[in-house]
Write a structure and sequence with these properties.
mainly alpha; Glutaredoxin; four-stranded mixed sheet; 2 domains; globular
Length: 286
């Protein structure tokens, strides 16, 4: 059966990265429609009338158009992708029911899940560490772009967050609220990865999610967390993820905000890094 895939995505969006990696893992060809998000650019492609009417009325990416069907929500998109036949023989979801249930829990914990508050899971903690970049991007927007967000963005939660970043500052306050929970999650991941190359043994959907989360930590100058001698399984796991072709094709080949990232971290490492490292060491030695 012929399948025509069009992906509406943003380069730096975590969930967009996850779907792109899945497409490359499966070896699927797709048409790329880049959407510049309203909190990143004055272009605000996700608030365009055509996008809101025909692609996603919630103004969120990614969205996959599969022939004439619109598929939304990154986790569900990847499930649908896994059902398609590509050039690569790989299953991102196992056939065994017990393994599927286990994977479902990991997927929910490692992505930005609708209805899960920010900072309540591993996947919703990682974006908090990039608040500084998002805030700087928002503060650089024209005031007319802020008005567009006020009047056109359909999601009240995101609208409020963007306005708070524009008129005030959250970047020094957001990261610290998840230090302890994030420390526990990394230690739990270390334990789960014992004697494994990937979360369930074989590469899966959840590994895609963590590939993208770990890459975001790297961009935030926090990669040393993934290379600590106290977390050898995590360190080995990160090397395995980076070695996959999909890491280059789905993430590194879609750069964005390089100059802004250099500007933010020009003075040194991420201030969150040392605090979390010390918490990990303290937790493991107690």
């Amino acid at each position: 059966m012929n399948q025509e895939l069009t992906l509406y995505h943003a380069h730096w969006s975590l969930c967009s990265q996850m779907v792109r990696v899945a497409l490359y893992e499966k070896g699927l060809q797709f048409k790329s429609e880049r959407i510049k998000l309203c909190d990143h650019s004055d272009e605000a492609g996700n608030l365009a009338d055509d996008f809101l009417k025909n692609i996603n009325p919630t103004a969120v990416v990614p969205v996959l158009k599969l022939n004439d069907e619109i598929v939304r929500d990154s986790a569900y998109i990847i499930e649908r992708i896994d059902d398609l036949e590509g050039d690569n023989e790989i299953n991102l979801w196992p056939q065994d029911p017990l393994k599927r249930r286990e994977l479902k829990k990991w997927v929910e914990d490692t992505t930005i899940t609708e209805g899960v508050g920010m900072g309540k899971s591993l996947g919703t903690m990682v974006p908090l560490f990039s608040t500084g970049l998002i805030e700087d991007l928002i503060k650089n927007l024209k005031f007319s772009s802020i008005l567009r967000i006020i009047f056109k963005h359909p999601r009240r939660d995101r609208k409020i967050a963007f306005l708070m970043m524009y008129f005030f500052s959250l970047k020094q306050k957001i990261g610290p609220i998840v230090y302890n929970r994030f420390t526990r999650e990394l230690i739990a991941l270390e334990e789960n990865l014992k004697d494994k190359n990937f979360l369930l043994g074989e590469f899966s959907h959840a590994d895609i999610n963590l590939m993208c989360c770990f890459n975001r930590l790297t961009e935030m100058k926090m990669e040393n967390l993934l290379e600590m001698k106290e977390l050898p399984n995590v360190a080995n796991y990160w090397q395995n993820l980076k070695a996959r072709t999909s890491y280059q094709k789905g993430i590194l080949d879609y750069p964005d905000h390089e100059e802004m990232l250099k500007k933010i971290f020009n003075s040194g490492p991420n201030p969150h890094l040392e605090v979390i490292q010390n918490k990990i060491i303290e937790k493991l030695s107690s």
